[in-house]
Amino acid sequence: MGRSATLSSTQRSRSRGFSMVELAVSMTVMLILTAIAIPSLMRSFRTYQLNDAASRLADMLKFTRFEAVRRNRQVCFLMQQSGATWIIGTDSNPNCPGTFDVNGKQQVITGFAALLPAGTAPSPTAITSKLGALTTKSGSNGSVAFDARGAIRVGGNVSTSVFVFYIGSTSDPESGYRAVVLLPAGSIQIWSAPNGGPWQQIS
């Protein structure tokens, strides 16, 4: 009786655990699934970063335009680089470019996504065929002036230029690019392109 009880207890104890072979197989399967999932997760995260940077840039342009209309006078959108970081915000002084408003709304674009100069992103043929010639505003410090009607002003006159801000990563072009397009009347479009193009409007 005692021997039978001991054997039964030993069998139950063994059934609760894993053998080394089972553990090795489980770990191998887990590593394979992880190796498959990580690149997909990284691509999704990079896409999110690009979309987030484009949305924040577009929102700041819209906010500056709204402030110009609300205050019934010219308000400037400013863009300044500090190392790998870009700071964007508003300047209520009508003489662009000036300095950011004290305690004014600002956004920071840094890390993976950066504001790129012309020639870095894919050729904007698809955009220019729809909107005409583009003037690149990203890649260096600059400003855009919105008048009391929300239109773009250049040198005191209503602009005829279509401005574009390119967003992407110089170290990881395979993740693609975004373009925030600012039309003379002040409306905004966002375009997307894989590395090499073509561009497609997404909003």
CATH architecture: 3-Layer(bab) Sandwich
Q: CATH top level?
A: Alpha Beta
Which class do the helix and strand fractions yield?
A: alpha+beta
Strand order within the widest sheet? 3-2-1-6-7-8
Taking pLDDT < 50 over at least 5 consecutive residues as the criterion, the unreliable ranges are: none
Distance between the termini: 79 Å
Rg to the nearest angstrom?
27 Å
Number of domains: 1
| Helical content (DSSP H or I, runs of 4+) | 25-40%
The main pleated sheet reads as: 6 strands, antiparallel
CATH level-four homologous superfamily name: minor pseudopilin epsh domain
Which H/E pattern describes the elements? HHEEEEHEEEEEEEE
What is the CATH topology classification name?
A: minor pseudopilin epsh fold
Overall, the morphology is: elongated
Descriptive notes:
The protein is α+β, with helices and mostly antiparallel strands. The protein has one domain (2-201): minor pseudopilin epsh domain (minor pseudopilin epsh fold). The chain contains 3 helices and 12 strands. It has helices spanning 2-15, 20-71, 125-131; strands spanning 75-82, 85-91, 106-109, 114-116, 134-136, 142-146, 152-154, 157-158, 162-168, 177-182, 188-193, 200-201. The strands form 2 sheets. It has a 6-stranded antiparallel beta sheet. β7 and β8 form a beta hairpin. The model has no long low-confidence stretch (mean pLDDT 87).
